[in-house]
Amino acid sequence: MKTNILKDGINSLIRAGYYKDRETLAEDAFRTLLEVRPGIKIDMAIEMYRHERVSLARAAEIAGFCQEGFKNVIAQRGIKRIIHAPSNSELAKEVSLIVG
Question: Does residue 60 share a domain with residue 29?
């Protein structure tokens, strides 16, 4: 009878009290993966940024870079920065603040 070592191992760690549930174990495993393979963390931050799930500042933080460093990384990979132009009403409001 073939056993699933991964599934049995997960269940064993939960029964032994190391983790309260599968989600907690998965979160810990994911954090460990990101620590051990920092390149994955950078790729994850880039993908989150490209799909507008996070801002440039947040993506830089996730990747472990300052904003300028992250800008350089995405430029080297040929990824264009996402810049949202203000709407006409936002622009008018900003101009009125400047003009007085």
Answer: no
